User: What shape does this take?
Amino acid sequence: MDEKCCYLAVDGGNSKTEYRLLNASGAVIAAHRGGASNHETLPGGFVGAADVLIDAIEGLLDTQGYALSDVADAVLGLAGADYDEQALALQQSLYDKGLKHSFVCNDGYLGVMAGIENGVGICYSAGSGVTCTGMNAEGERVQFGGIGVLSGDVGGGFDIAAFVYRSVYQHLFFGKAYTALKDAYFTLFDVRTPEAFLASAAHLQNEEAARMLIGLFFTAVETGDEVALRYTALAASHAADCIVAVSDALGLKPTVPVALSGSIMTAVAPPAYRRMIEYELYRRKGKYFVLRVNDRPPVDGAVRWVRQRNQLAFGI
Assistant: This one.
């Protein structure tokens, strides 16, 4: 074994990126949290994302006396890598900048590796956006969702925040149904008039304000607000559609484990939302799936994956 070699595990998202450095034995020896690395939202596209990733990776390597040339393998699960062409383009951009050995996939697959013991099953992830990924025993991978409005995604943080604003807007100006979201929104942002509400749209560009809107939304769900509950039912139905589609495409047999990941599913949504997804799945397929909230960070899935790819005994 070349004691100088090392390995990388990366979970790249819309708001933050987690990096782990492993030594030649597969032990995690250093960690770093950086900013967003999604090529779809960064200037420069694939090349811009690679610049961000390589800059952070080189900084992490330098702390332990390594260089890019010492990286024997890397697993990077990246938001925005929604199909093979994008993953390969990102992998090529990283190669061009000196990371010669890497595997790039959608970050949703990390949830399968982190949340399911044998790495066979499905991960439904709801964070800033939503995506559903799965892997079978033969190593085949499938993803549905993750392309936003183009794939009809509902239930992600961006969409929830927009839904709150839209519901209040339609009540105020189109005479649509009253929702408790209106009073909660006005209180949260100290809005007193419809005109001030229109101007408050700028708040949606602020990440912290968007998080508060998501919390406001799920409070409305728990208190039985009809408008919020209708949206939640739609999101649960979409989640079930994605999970069933992944299971069918991979030929998974019951009982299929489903890891629920992402900040919405693990930290924000009430248990009632998970039960709605379970009901939608039961209505379609009976007792075919078993859902559990993933309590391990997705970057742990990247760590596990790079160990498996390189037959590193540590932690397997």
Q: What stands out?
A: The CA atoms of residues 6 and 161 lie 41 Å apart.
